[in-house]
Predict the structure.
Amino acid sequence: MFSRLIVSSLLSGLVISSTLSGDASSLETRDKPNAAPGCRGAVDAIVSTLSLNYATSFCSSLLHIPTNAATITSTTKATATVTTGSASTLYTFLPGNAPSKAKARRNIEARNAPADPPIPTYLGKTPLPLISKACSCLNLPTRTTTATATVTATTTTTVAAPPVYITKYPCADPFPTLTPNLPFGDYVSPTDLGLQNGRFFTDTPQGSSGQACCNACFFEIENCINAYYYSYQGCVYSQATNLTSASGQGKDATCPAGYFKGLTYVPDTKPAFRSQGTLAGPCGRTYNNL
């Protein structure tokens, strides 16, 4: 009886020992890369550390193992908006100078070299060449990534092209003279604007300089069409009084009825005699003098 209990206990112990041994073996080899034959010596300990820490992903990244790509195609529905016609241009004029643009800092890092992955903490301060050598000793599988290619079924909606907004600073420093372009320009209008002339003398702020005259026409006088600065007369301006061609669009303090339909400014190639040039106004529809 006693001998049978001993045998039974021994058999139970063998079963338990066998079971634990099998589990340990399973845990030890699960997802671990195996060392290639003949890879021993100085890197052997590093190889073991990489194997114990399941470093397949890290080593694949470090050695830049090629990746096989698998593509899955899916179909989605979308609505696209298509513009038709030419976009109109609307101008906003502001006093002063345009804000300065910060210079973009250049990126001097090499862009074509792939970046190395971060070194895992369990490798301590092991030199990178030894880590790379140890990784090359492992049997690393080819990585596979899955990409989704989306095929879109599009429904098209057509709308009119939205306007393009442009901001200009016509009277900025340094103020030019006798140039054909903004702020100078001759006006062309298909309708009679009923121009009425006015003047700021040289002893007034508006008539003190060409730049002051420019600011008066663009930002002070209502419906100013043109202006001229003379050093001996001051600022002479032409103001529209016939508002039948006013559009009602783009209203502001100096163009209370909006821009004038068909009012176009062209380069000032023949400035008024003894003036600094023919100053344009803010209520135009088209500016070909920009």
